[in-house]
Amino acid sequence: MRRSELTPPGDLDFNPMKIACILADVIKREPDVELVFCGRQADNGSNGQTGQLLAEMLSWPCFTMVIDIKKVEDEYQVSRMVDEGIEHLYLKAPFVITVTQSDNKLLRMAGLKAVLEAKKKPIEHLEAAGLSDFASLYNLEELSINKPDKHCVFIEDKPAESKADQLKELLKNRGRNE
């Protein structure tokens, strides 16, 4: 495995599209990339889009909420959280995953031996200059949080059949009076 460091052009905070474009351009130049690990979402923007955008640009599948991955012969066994519990998949490369931690598997800190070994490996410095102009097409102009309007309607205390009719009428007219 090779370690690479990419020097990004300018400020990339709150810009998952530019980050994904830069990563996609670098990955397309490397023929031996099998999989890409991305975080589920960053603390500074919480947008959680980079992994999915990157997968789309590479035309690779993306698997989200991954909590465990192991190489088994020529496949990867991937465990990910879904609404029904934990799903186990056997996947062939290439693909992108977004990782998260589960209640029973917390992020591990590298041991001293691993840190010392990693320091000995050379780091290839990559320049982002000359990468896709696609990334320059997008600029963050505004960041806001949409708060949904909440509407509550109380159905009067009447016989059950009448309540059902009143609910049916409310649902039928929903959106017409807004």
Overview of the structural elements:
With 178 residues, the protein is α/β, with parallel strands linked by helices. The chain has one domain: Rossmann fold, CATH 3.40.50.620. Helix content is 25%, strand content 26%. The strands form two sheets. The protein has a five-stranded mixed β-sheet. The longest helix is centred in the N-terminal third of the chain and has 14 residues, at 16-29.
Give the SSE map.
Blueprint: E1 3-7, H1 16-29, E2 35-39, H2 50-58, E3 62-72, E4 75-82, E5 85-91, E6 95-99, H3 112-120, E7 123-127, H4 160-172
Parallel strand pairs: 1-7, 2-6, 3-6
Antiparallel strand pairs: 3-4, 4-5
Helix pairs in contact: 1-2
Brief rundown of the structure:
It is elongated and about 75 Å long. It is α/β, with parallel strands linked by helices and 178 residues long. The chain is built from four helices and seven strands.
